[in-house]
Structure formats: structure tokens, C-alpha cells
Amino acid sequence: MAVKSMNTYTGHISALFLMHLYLRHRTLFPQPLFYIYSKATVLNGTRSSH
User: Fold this and answer.
1) pLDDT for 46 beyond 80
2) Which domain of life is it from (predicted)?
């Protein structure tokens, strides 16, 4: 139980951090690539929390 919630927490933190990096260095990241990557991260997070 604790591990599961910790996994979700870490996933949210890394997603927020990635979003922060993206907004900060928007010109360095091609938008479609980031969109695909964030989609994959969300899918990965939901898969590991189940």
C-alpha cells in the first residue's frame, strides 16, 4: 500500500518537474515529442500504480 502511493507520488513529482523544465526551456523541446513523452509517462505511471 505504502509502496503504491509512493510510486504515484514520485510519478506526479517527476511529471511536474518535466512540465516545469519544458515551460522553462520551451524552445529546446519540440512540442510533439514532449507530448508523446508525457503521454508515455502518464501511461507508465497508471500502469505501475495498478
Assistant:
1) no
2) Eukaryota
Mean pLDDT of the chain: 73
Given a contact cutoff of 8 angstroms between Cβ atoms, the answer to whether 11 and 45 are in contact is yes
In whole angstroms, what is the distance from residue 48 CA to residue 6 CA? 11
Segment 18-46 shows an average pLDDT of 73
Cα-Cα-Cα-Cα dihedral of 14, 38, 49, 6, to 10°?
A: 10
Nearest-angstrom CA–CA distance, 29 and 35: 10
Structural domain boundaries enclosing 39: 1-46
Report the domain count for the chain. Answer: 1
